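Cross-check.
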Amino acid sequence: MEKALEAMQMWRHDPLFSQFYHQSGMINIDNTDLGAEILKNYEKLGVEVDAEMASPERFKAMYGSFYNDTDFSEVGEVFVNRDSGWAEATKALTAYTDAAVEAGVKYITADIDVLTFGTDGECTGVLTIGGENITADRIILATGAGTAKLIADSAPNRKELQVDGRLVAGAVVTGIVNLDPKNGQQYTEIPVTVHSVLPTRGKETKFRPS
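Predicted model, tokenized:
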């Protein structure tokens, strides 16, 4: 959680990232103790945060009629964090890449075949499908759901490196709805919403009128 808090400060205050961050707030509707545990963690770390647990009735009153049709039948309390928000990830990543290149980083685009390893077993880089060997002192894998297969293909005989349940790939179905500013105004006044009670699990991201 400490790393997450450090990242949040970067999103809020760093000139490069803050332009892509929107502090809309975030709420989590579920039937577990997750929200209460999050508040306890903030307290343990000595972090002041504008967050609380609210009953469904009080929660609906906070945001007018938007949540009137939401199913709260199995929900005791709703976690509300007004200090949270969302970021435009694609734009931020592009800006970060451009800044790195301007600072002298060599940016290479290639399809990776396998990871390469040194005589001591350390990862030394990658071998591209085109046969180019790219090496570095530090290798960071940001390969998502392809991580397990990449490691298995690269070092099939090294059991200690295999994912073997350490990571679980997940998928999020994304939909985009184009609304005019008049009809979409209500979406600008609510936080990012996470609904974790089965079978109505889902997320709502923020709408910004063009």
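Residues 119 and 135 are 14 Å apart (CA to CA). The first strand starts at residue 21 and ends at 22. Passed to J.P. for a second look.
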